[in-house]
Specification:
Elements: E1 6-9, H1 21-25, H2 31-43, E2 48-53, H3 75-92, E3 96-99, H4 106-111
Parallel strand pairs: 1-2, 2-3
């Protein structure tokens, strides 16, 4: 895979999406997933597609993780959501999922669904 021609896709989601965090971030019809699928259809393998894997744009607090009702960041739940997101991005056409959330263990948990 050559990175000479690549594109990094990330979300700048409307804050109103924050109430539907789980359904939006890993959804097949999510904005990143739709963009990846459309680009893949348009350019085939001529462009390496890189997907930013984070939750911050899908929260009303702006943190990279899922907050509990008391406002604490739930690292374990966040990791589950990040892994689901990475898988959905790969299925949508990402060649590379780029973990950018500041969550302990994200790189490790993102690798697990792809392990052979």
């Amino acid at each position: 895979m050559k990175l000479e021609r690549s594109a990094l896709i990330w979300t700048c989601a409307p804050k109103r999406w924050a109430t539907a965090l789980r359904s939006r971030v890993a959804a097949r019809e999510g904005i990143i997933q739709r963009a990846l699928a459309a680009l893949r259809d348009e350019v085939g393998d001529e462009l390496v597609l890189i997907a930013d894997t984070c939750l911050c744009e899908y929260t009303d607090h702006g943190h990279c993780g899922h907050a509990t009702e008391s406002g604490e960041i739930d690292n374990d739940r966040s990791l589950e959501m990040l892994a689901e997101t990475a898988v959905s991005q790969a299925r949508a056409g990402a060649d590379i999922v780029a973990p950018s959330a500041m969550m302990d263990g994200q790189v490790h948990i993102d690798q697990q669904p792809f392990a052979l």
